[in-house]
Amino acid sequence: FWADLKSALSDRLDAIDFTRAIKMLNENSYVPREA
């Protein structure tokens, strides 16, 4: 049970970090594109 919960939480955290990183990359590359 704990192993499943742990893996589910880690997967969710990875997804959050992934989307957060993509957002940062998009914002960083979005500024020079406009200039």
From TrEMBL:
Entry superkingdom: Eukaryota
The entry's keywords: Receptor
Name assigned to this protein: Transferrin receptor
Organism (species): Ovis aries (Sheep)
Gene that encodes it: TFRC
